[in-house]
Amino acid sequence: MQRGVLREGIGMVKGRLAAGSSAHLQAAVDLILRGRSGARFTLPGGLSILVSSDRFTILDSASFPKGLRSVPVNLPGETDLIEAGVSLRVSIGAGTVAPDPRRLGLFDLSKAEPPFIVRAWQPGDRFCPAGMKGRQKKLQDYFVDAKIPRHLRARIPILSGGNGILWLIGHRFDERFMAGPQCPNVMRVELRPKGEGEWS
After folding, report:
1. Residue 123 and residue 8: Cα distance in Å, rounded?
2. How far is Cα 187 from Cα 90, in angstroms, rounded to an integer?
3. What are the C-alpha distances in Å from 89 to residues 31, 192, 193?
4. Rounded Cα distance, 86 and 15, in Å
5. pLDDT at 25
6. What does the domain layout of the chain look like in residue ranges?
7. What is the rounded distance in angstroms from the CA atom of residue 166 to the CA atom of residue 157?
8. How far, in Å, CA of 174 to CA of 164, rounded?
9. Nearest to residue 170, comparing CAs of 82, 70, 111, 85?
10. Whole-angstrom Cα distance, residue 144 to residue 165?
């Protein structure tokens, strides 16, 4: 039954398994049942099975997430993050709206130092997540606590400055660089998914 469920899922992604795949299928089932989060198994035909704490994902290698290139941020201006499927618009001024870690960051330019880039995470990265009262946290530990699967972590864009991470884009700000309500020199960073139309 377990092999049948997995075979059906593979059929939805690929159409059918390559010939002679029964042993691979059983090995994949065994891996899933062990439930080790982050484990990955490769099947014939370019398929990968990725295991997280409470589920598994079947991916075709053609769509397997790739890491982000480091991209300098245009200040002010627009910056396309092609691999992440989003673009950023950066402007300088005073903060007049509340920040939203999913779409809008407001950063104090008296604290955040250039150069500003967007990049993928790197081993050893640390930041001070907003709400943790200045306590540092390894990005690796944040990913684990937030249950972000390993195969997606390299696709999460990080806005970084010369003196630290400003924003784990879409997830959390570093509170050291967030602009307060009276901050006169704010870097406003807006996120827009590709295909959402023009900037308003």
Report:
1. 37
2. 7
3. 43, 8, 11
4. 30
5. 67
6. 2-63, 71-193
7. 11
8. 9
9. 85
10. 18
| CATH class held by domain 71-193 | alpha beta
181 versus 163: the higher-pLDDT residue is 163
Tokens of 132: 């943790």
- Token couple for 71: 């991209």
Cis peptide before 115 (omega within 30 of 0): yes
Residue 54 clears pLDDT 70, i.e. is over it: no
Coil, strand or helix at 193: strand
CB under 8 Å to 29, separation ≥6 — which residues?
Answer: 2, 3, 6
Please give the structure tokens belonging to residue 19.
């010939």
Pairing verdict, β 71-72 and 172-173: unpaired
**Kind of pairing, strands 158-161 and 137-138?**
unpaired
Give pTM, 2 decimals.
0.68
Residues β-bridged to residue 188: 91, 106
Radius of gyration over alpha carbons of the chain, in Å? 20
* Selection from 98, 75, 97, 99 nearest residue 88 by Cα: 75
Q: Do the beta carbons of residue 12 and residue 57 sit within 8 Å?
A: no
